[in-house]
């Protein structure tokens, strides 16, 4: 696939840094640093403009830092956006997690067989430094259960409000 990228930033155009990398590092094209409070949002410009074919999406995900360790990503959030918007609204109202982000489908997730059969489904994972997702060390004793109480409360509220 050929993706046209126009770079009007002061940084080099992003590229894959290592063989087999799934994504590229973006850099903020800003004059001053930005500090956000929990649940606060802002637009951070990159100076990049991309042209994607119809039916494709680009995603921005955190790699590290406090925001990455205190939020969740919702697989299929961009597909089932009404349900995702409801989940995100509950989080904002109850102030449970710093961020709730959406992404598209992922064929490497446990939920995928349900989604593939037409069953609306989310797969939620916490952001952080867990390195063993779907490898031989992905065993119960290694799972950190990051923000378990907050995620449990968010899902419980989502289910109760859906009834």
Q: Helices and strands in order, then pairings?
A:
Blueprint: E1 4-7, E2 48-51, H1 65-69, E3 71-75, H2 81-94, E4 99-103, H3 112-116, E5 123-126, H4 148-162
Parallel strand pairs: 3-4
Antiparallel strand pairs: 1-2, 3-5
Helix pairs in contact: 2-4
Distance between the termini: 43 Å
Biggest sheet overview:
3 strands, mixed
Radius of gyration, in angstroms, nearest whole number: 17 Å
Class of secondary structure makeup: alpha+beta
Write structural notes for this entry.
The chain is of the alpha+beta class. The chain has helices at 65-69, 81-94, 112-116, 148-162; strands at residues 4-7, 48-51, 71-75, 99-103, 123-126.
Protein traits:
single chain, 163 residues, alpha+beta, 3-stranded mixed beta sheet, 4 helices
Could you provide a short overview of the structure?
The N and C termini lie far apart (43 Å).
